[in-house]
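Human: If only I could read backbone structure tokens as easily as an amino acid sequence. Take your time, and here it is.
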Amino acid sequence: MSGWTLRAKQAPALRVDLRGVTPGALTARSSAEVERWPVEHGNSLVPLAEFFIVEARDDDALVFEADLTRFDHVGWQMDGGRLLVEGGVGHYAGGGMRGGELTVRGSAGALAACEMVGGTLTIGGSAGDFAASTLPGSMDGMRGGTLIVRGSAGARLGDRMRRGTVLVFGDVGDFLASRMVAGTIAIAGRAGAHVAYGMRRGSVVFAGTAPEPSSTFVPAIAQADVFWRLLARDLAGYGGAFAALPRRRIERRLGDLAAGGKGELIMPC
């Protein structure tokens, strides 16, 4: 027995930083040790027991039966195991994540999956701005892993993204895939303005209504049938609007030529 359930006791007066509270960190800890585990609350360090009732589980999961919208860095640099949040979360959820499964039943704040390296982050609601992007002052965004957003996502999704896969079942905001370097982003809903601004490489797939590409994206001449069959089959496994992709023909646009880019926008016909 090494898993824990943390049930909400009281809402924090200030924002709480849950950095370091991961399945791996709490494995093999005693109940008393988990209760005393320090977290930042404003300018102070307080024990987890200040906000949660701690109960042991029969499995190895870490489960928050709570709304964590005032708690930031949930799953920060998580490197394995399973973490489940029954409600929403604050900013930086899954940031720097290296492995494991982080599931959020509700919505997430800004910078979810920022600089993610591995693992899977699933958000049942919507994600804020700068998901799968860079930390402030950094040059590299998401570098691996998978981000799944069942709702919508805000602006700058995938900004400077270098690797990995992002799927959004709803709409996305402005500057989708801005300055993208590599990786795959698939969108089921509509996208805002300035799609793929400054894109260098990578693929953005539109399973629903495709935007009108800017003049710095040009029609592709070379065929990519084999590549598309493999990519479409992979995306179809996530269901929803993506399930029909293998049966659809595509139009590809290459760019952003204004940045010397060789990325592609894939728009099924």
Remarks:
- The chain has one domain: 63-268.
- The first helix runs from residue 23 to 26.
- The longest strand covers residues 79-85.
